[in-house]
Amino acid sequence: MRRPSFRSLAAVTAGLTFALILVGIYTKATAAGLACNAQWPGTNGFLGLLPADLPCFIEWSHRALAMVTGFAILATAIAAWRGGFDRRIRYATGVALAVLPVQVVLGANTVFNYGAVSQVAHHGAALTILTGLLVATTLAFWGPAASANPETAGADAGDRERDAHTADD
After folding, report:
1. I need a surface site. Which of 109, 114, 123, 158 has the fewest CB within 10 A?
2. Cα distance from N-terminal residue to C-terminal residue, the chain
3. 126-146 pLDDT tens trace
4. How far apart are CA 169 and CA 165, in angstroms?
5. 118-146 burial code (b ≥16 CB/10 A, e <16)
């Protein structure tokens, strides 16, 4: 089975981040975060893990999607740095990864301090992460040489791996 290319990983991660922002906006608009009675990272459901009602489920879904998205951001940054991609791609994913812990702390803060300042800071960090991922994805698809190696310039990690296996046959 062929593993996904960096381009695919970057695009999916950017899409997850955008979806997370939309779910976060919905969570804020429905005041679902207040349903968990200022509990973080748990909720007020079964053992603090599963939601007790619909508003709590909305908040819980946002947190679950945030966790999956966080791991995708980590994987994208690791793939960019290990794959020998253009330094702009590596730095863009590095910025997204560096802001991620700040975003998590600000997200937890919005549970306890449900004010405008914490919401603006929280969403500002999210937009910084999204911008870094969009820059990395755009450069991976349409930027100049996605690789520092001139022999594989323009190819992404998945293409280089496939070409290496084809050459061995």
Report:
1. 114
2. 16
3. 999 999 999 999 999 987 654
4. 7
5. bbebbbebbebbbbbbbbbbbbbeebeeb
